[in-house]
């Protein structure tokens, strides 16, 4: 049975993003979904799991999560190198970067698994629609969603990104490469929830989990919403 | 000084112009005088006269209702009150209200100002307008494009608050109840109610772990989301004890008993049976008692208070109830409370859902619908749900994920296609759930529903 670990759902649950996992449960009902709370030892630290998910957190909780995961940094590196699927959405991906800089210039050290850092601007909320593409073998998957965040990320993700940007922006307003990627680690600020809004992306994740011919829950309706939004985003003029 | 008076007079002139031409420009423009004033004199808020007593009302849900109720009650008690109840709650709206309150020579026309203040505007407003009282309804998830989570809003409000302000806080909201804990605050709450649970039934609970030691909190009871009473089993952190607490509710006679800080219990008329409005009423009672209104007089005043009609209205057409309920799109807690309320009403029902505001732009962020408890609508008595608008398909998909059978769900892109999707059984209720930006659409939907009921009756 596939083991899917959801890290810190009691705090990592902003913007409806836990529905990435609720929806995966409906697409892949036979997997074992493990919820790990802040005061518990993550399952991945004790045994191999097939997937780890962590969603967007309030800033105070993001800092607690960094503190909790810091002693597991080497194990996380090992897990990534083994090809475990990791999906970090919203500001959860910043936990895996080098540091987060506050408005006052102070820095919070992060796990350092990526050579990228985040800058917070807490009175400057950044909102934009997003569309982009990624490769799934020979197929190009189109992605739609939204960004809504206080932070921007900086650093060279030219060889370690997730999506090529069509509309909106990448890890910062000047970037055309969205997200952080290393093997099957996928970090992105694209909200939606991304797995709900993008059935091809959900099928891609399911394939990474070893599902041979994946189908998503309520496929016809999911595809209908996806196509409407693809069409709309195509016509939309997005200024960042 | 010259610049200040020029700005004040220009803003007053702007108000006259707006009043003359608002029908032509099709906007009320209530904060336009504030925009003019701030443009001409950026520090006008520092210079303009304020009423002797300023009551600021803030919080995620219930600000407008609360501002109206407090203003109405104070006026009924004989006080001379100004407020921004018809204007906006950001800095331009607050400025417009104070321009309105000032005479041409910067004297206050009114003794008391009741100002609804947007949480995010706190820092800008309170720098110059020091509230005598701050009434906070609750802090919960708001529009993610501005206020992404209540802990962020808490920090903003906390930073902005002057030390001299007396806080009236919700003891049942463990987020806002922690504002300025270094001073003596007044707390209100509602005790255990029928239908409460001992754990959160909602998708969203923004305070699941102890803010001191991160141990999971134990809820003694939950009204909705994180609103209820909780304690930490590890370190003893707990909800504050309310000074004013609604201790029992009689929905038959629409009376509730509220215990005050002296242990005295008074019986008040309940303005509504929805939990949001019960909280609003308890909040008003706590504030007005602290303000100095005698309890017996307050009991009399609350006999005649009503809530703003744009948020709730009903009619009965040929035996079918047509009920409009504002659910405030983008705000998951507000929508969830309305869904819970509707699902608990006894009649068979249909829902016309118009929560989106996509008609104002090309696309809007809909992530909040995955924070919203559409699962509450998975009830056999709700046998037909019609989502209306550009995003109707997304709402239908959300409800499928919530487990609602597909045969109960319909999506129509335009209002003109609504009527054929309505069933309209004798004796049922049709609920129109609409967003605060969809007030015009609510009127349109109501007309279609009422006319369709009459037409079908005539053809029967």
Brief overview:
The complex is a heterodimer of chains A (240) and B (460). With 240 residues, chain A is α/β, with parallel strands linked by helices. Chain A has a single domain, classed as Class I glutamine amidotransferase (GATase) domain (Rossmann fold, 3-Layer(aba) Sandwich), CATH 3.40.50.
Give an overview of the whole structure.
The complex is a heterodimer of chains A (240) and B (460). Chain A is an alpha/beta fold. Chain A has a single domain (3-235), classed as Rossmann fold. Helix content of chain A is 25%, strand content 30%. Chain A contains 6 helices and 14 strands. Chain A has a 6-stranded mixed beta sheet with strand order 2-1-3-4-14-13, with no helix packed on it. In chain A, strand 8 and strand 9 (139-149) form a beta hairpin. The relative contact order of chain A is 0.15. Chain B has 460 residues and is of the alpha/beta class. Chain B has 2 domains: 2-184, UDP-N-acetylmuramoyl-L-alanine:D-glutamate ligase, CATH 3.40.1190; 312-459, Mur ligase, C-terminal domain (Protein-Tyrosine Phosphatase, Chain A). Chain B is built from 12 helices and 17 strands. Chain B has helices at residues 2-25, 32-40, 44-47, 63-76, 91-101, 122-126, 150-160, 275-291, 295-302, 332-344, 392-401, 439-459; strands at 53-58, 81-83, 112-116, 133-136, 166-170, 186-190, 218-224, 227-231, 244-250, 255-259, 265-269, 312-317, 320-326, 349-354, 382-388, 409-412, 429-434. Chain B has a 9-stranded mixed beta sheet, with helices on both faces. Chain B has a 6-stranded mixed beta sheet with strand order 12-13-17-14-15-16, with helices on both faces. In chain B, helix 7 (150-160) links the parallel strand 4 and strand 5 (166-170). The longest helix of chain B is centred in the N-terminal third of the chain and has 24 residues, at 2-25. Chain B is globular. The termini of chain B are far apart. The model of chain B has no long low-confidence stretch (mean pLDDT 92). The A-B interface holds A 10-11, 13-19, 22-23, 26, 37-39, 58-61, 64, 122, 125, 127, 129, 146, 148, 150, 191-193, 196, 217-218, 221-222, 224-225, 228-229, 232-233, 235-236 and B 144-146, 148-149, 151-152, 155, 203-205, 208-209, 214-216, 332, 362-363, 365, 367-372, 393-394, 396-397, 400-401.
């Amino acid at each position: 049975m596939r083991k899917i670990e959801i890290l810190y759902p009691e705090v990592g649950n902003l913007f409806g993003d836990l529905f990435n996992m609720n929806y995966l449960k409906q697409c892949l009902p036979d997997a074992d979904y493990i919820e790990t709370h802040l005061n518990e030892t993550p399952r991945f630290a004790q045994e191999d799991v097939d997937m780890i998910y962590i969603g967007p957190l309030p800033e105070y909780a993001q800092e607690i999560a960094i503190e909790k995961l810091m002693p597991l940094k080497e194990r996380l590196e090992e897990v990534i190198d083994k090809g475990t699927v990791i999906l970090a959405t919203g500001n959860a991906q910043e936990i895996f970067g080098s540091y987060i800089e506050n408005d006052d210039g102070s820095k919070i050290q992060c796990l350092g698994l990526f050579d990228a850092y985040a800058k917070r601007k807490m009175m400057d909320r950044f909102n934009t629609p997003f569309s982009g593409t990624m490769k799934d073998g020979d197929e190009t998957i189109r992605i739609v969603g939204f960004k809504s965040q206080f932070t921007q990320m900086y650093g060279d993700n030219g060889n370690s990104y997730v999506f090529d940007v069509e509309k909106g922006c990448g890890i910062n307003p000047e970037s055309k490469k969205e997200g952080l990627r290393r093997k099957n680690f996928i970090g992105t600020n694209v909200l939606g929830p991304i797995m709900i809004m993008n059935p091809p992306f959900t099928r891609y994740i399911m394939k990474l989990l070893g599902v041979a011919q994946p189908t998503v829950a309520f496929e016809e309706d999911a595809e209908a919403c996806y196509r409407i939004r693809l069409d709309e985003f195509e016509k939309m003029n997005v200024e960042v | 000084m010259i610049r200040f008076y020029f700005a004040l007079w220009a803003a007053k002139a702007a108000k006259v112009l707006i009043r003359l031409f608002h029908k032509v420009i099709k906007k009320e423009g209530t904060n336009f005088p504030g925009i003019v004033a701030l443009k001409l004199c950026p520090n006008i808020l520092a210079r303009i006269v304020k009423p002797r007593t300023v009551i600021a009302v803030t919080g995620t849900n219930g600000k407008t209702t609360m501002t109206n109720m407090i203003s109405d009650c104070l006026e009924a008690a004989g006080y001379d009150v100004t407020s921004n109840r018809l204007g906006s709650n950001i800095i331009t709206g607050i400025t417009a209200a104070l321009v309105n309150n000032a005479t041409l020579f910067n004297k206050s026309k009114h003794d008391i100002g009741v100002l609804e203040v947007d949480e995010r505007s706190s820092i800008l407003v309170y720098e110059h307008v020091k509230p005598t009282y701050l009434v906070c309804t609750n802090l919960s998830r708001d529009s993610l494009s501005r206020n992404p989570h209540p802990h962020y809003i808490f920090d903003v409000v906390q930073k902005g608050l002057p030390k001299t302000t007396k806080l009236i806080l919700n003891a049942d909201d463990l987020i806002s109840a922690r504002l300025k804990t270094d001073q003596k605050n007044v707390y209100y709450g509602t005790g255990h109610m029928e239908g409460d649970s001992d754990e959160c039934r909602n998708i969203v609970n923004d305070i699941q772990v102890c803010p001191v030691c991160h141990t999971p909190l134990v809820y003694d009871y939950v009204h909705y989301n994180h609103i209820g009473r909780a304690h930490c089993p590890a370190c003893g952190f707990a909800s504050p004890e309310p000074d004013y607490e609604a201790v029992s509710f009689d929905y038959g006679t629409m009376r509730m008993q509220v215990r005050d800080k002296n242990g005295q219990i008074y019986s008040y008329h309940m303005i509504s049976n929805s939990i949001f409005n019960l909280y609003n009423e308890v909040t008003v009672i706590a504030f007005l008692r602290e303000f100095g209104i005698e309890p017996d007089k307050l009991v009399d005043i609350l006999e005649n208070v009503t809530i703003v009609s744009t948020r709730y209205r009903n009619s009965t057409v040929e035996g079918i109830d047509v009920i409009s309920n504002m659910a405030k799109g983008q705000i998951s807690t507000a929508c969830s409370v309305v869904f819970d309320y509707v699902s608990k009403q006894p009649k068979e029902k249909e829902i016309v859902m118009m929560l989106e505001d996509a008609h104002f732009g090309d696309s809007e962020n809909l992530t909040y619908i995955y924070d919203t408890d559409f699962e509450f609508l998975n009830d056999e008595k709700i046998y037909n749900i019609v989502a209306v608008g550009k995003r109707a398909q997304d709402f239908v998909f959300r409800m499928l994920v919530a487990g609602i059978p597909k045969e109960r769900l319909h999506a129509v892109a335009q209002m003109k296609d609504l009527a054929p999707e309505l069933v309209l059984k004798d004796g049922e209720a049709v609920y129109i759930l609409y967003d605060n930006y969809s007030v015009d659409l609510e009127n349109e939907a109501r007309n279609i529903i009422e006319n369709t009921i009459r037409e079908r009756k005539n053809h029967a």
